[in-house]
């Protein structure tokens, strides 16, 4: 039995941050009922190509293990059914603009009046006081992430993965699970608020710490680490590798494996602070040393020295080699594959029990099961 088996989630989210959160809850065993609007459904159903049939791969990647119900929240009947669904659930998740849920009559006050122990999570771009949409690239910019990403002499650059959406979904999942644990102990529900801006600022970690300590804003370092050296990407004869030298012992062993023991005792490179200060000449020295050697040789030297190292893989290479790929059969689209959640419980990874749903596929089923007003 998965940890959240027997719990129901009323899912009023679309796009990515909310659906990523509710997919994690579904992977953990919860019955997630995804509420979508008539005709169009979740915006991400059309965010393509690529498509599988008429459904975007984007939507399919974050909506497995859920049921889809169509309700028209522009009508009194639709709102009444949505409110009944929320009240008969353990968790409500929504990522509307702040204020929208209250205008619809689906805010925390309205739901908790009918279910005092509800765990209600509102996901937004910038928090409840700012009614602006939060899209990943915009929030990567406003949070400071883009100022840290890219070449030092290049423009600010976004992370290739929508880290704002994914991180917010993960933080929301953490808060929901924590609230469910508290409810189990005390019987109390919870009103949770998670913002994309706050999530990315929280993840600045040592970069924020550096600013708060010195008053100076960190800058872009490309693929180099700001405080540890050598720690970054190096070109080799047949591609690129990452080397992450975390301490002086690793550096000494790496120099020995590479046949350049004199570098370990060079005063410019003997300690991490010295290597960080002299990183320009350090990286130039390593570039000339590694550029003509094949990746296999460099990685063998690094691993023999106990230095974390690895090739730069493409998405195709990474996913093709991953044990996280799950397959499920969709009744209309056929076999679908997706990357599953990374947990293992008692040695077993959660599977896929439901394919991503067609729009409104489970409306009648859920209406009958929960006796929702129509």
TrEMBL record:
Entries under InterPro entries matching the protein: CoA-transferase_III_domain, CoA-Trfase_fam_III, CoA-Trfase_III_dom3_sf, CoA-Trfase_III_dom_1_sf
Keywords, in A-Z order: Transferase
One GO MF term: transferase activity
Superkingdom as given in the UniProt entry: Bacteria
EC id: 2.8.3.-
SUPFAM superfamilies in the record: CoA-transferase family III (CaiB/BaiF) (SSF89796)
Name by which UniProt lists this protein: CoA transferase
């Amino acid at each position: 039995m998965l940890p959240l088996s027997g719990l129901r989630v009323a899912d009023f989210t679309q796009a990515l941050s909310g659906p990523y959160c509710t997919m994690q809850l579904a992977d953990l065993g919860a019955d997630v009922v995804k509420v979508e609007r008539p005709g169009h459904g979740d915006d991400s159903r059309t965010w393509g190509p690529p498509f599988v049939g008429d459904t975007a791969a984007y939507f399919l990647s974050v909506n497995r293990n859920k049921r889809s119900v169509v309700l028209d929240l522009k009508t009194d009947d639709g709102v009444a059914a949505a409110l009944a669904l929320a009240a008969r659930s353990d968790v409500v998740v929504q990522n509307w603009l702040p204020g929208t849920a209250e205008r619809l009559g689906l805010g925390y006050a309205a739901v908790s009046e009918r279910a005092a122990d509800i765990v209600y999570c509102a996901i937004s771009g910038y928090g409840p006081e700012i009614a602006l949409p939060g899209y990943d690239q915009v929030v990567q910019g406003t949070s400071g992430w883009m100022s840290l990403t890219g070449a030092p002499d290049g423009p600010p650059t976004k992370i290739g993965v929508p880290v704002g959406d994914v991180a917010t979904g993960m933080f929301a999942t953490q808060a929901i699970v924590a609230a469910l644990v508290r409810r189990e102990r005390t019987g109390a529900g919870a009103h949770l608020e998670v913002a994309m801006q706050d999530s990315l600022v929280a993840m600045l970690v040592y970069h924020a710490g550096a600013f708060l300590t010195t008053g100076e804003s960190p800058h872009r370092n490309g693929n180099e680490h700001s405080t540890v050296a050598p720690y970054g990407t190096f070109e080799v004869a047949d591609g690129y590798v990452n080397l992450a030298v975390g301490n002086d012992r690793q550096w000494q062993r790496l120099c020995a494996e590479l046949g350049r023991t004199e570098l370990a005792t060079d005063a410019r490179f003997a300690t991490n602070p010295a290597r960080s200060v002299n990183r320009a000449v350090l990286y130039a020295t390593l570039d000339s040393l590694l550029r003509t050697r094949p990746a296999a040789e460099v990685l063998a030297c690094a691993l023999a020295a106990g230095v974390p190292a690895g090739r730069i893989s493409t998405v195709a290479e990474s996913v093709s080699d991953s044990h996280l790929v799950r397959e499920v059969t969709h009744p209309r689209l056929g076999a679908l594959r997706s990357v599953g959640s990374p947990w293992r419980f008692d040695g077993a990874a959660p599977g896929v029990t439901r394919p991503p749903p067609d729009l409104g596929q489970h409306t009648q089923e859920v209406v009958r099961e929960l006796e929702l007003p129509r």
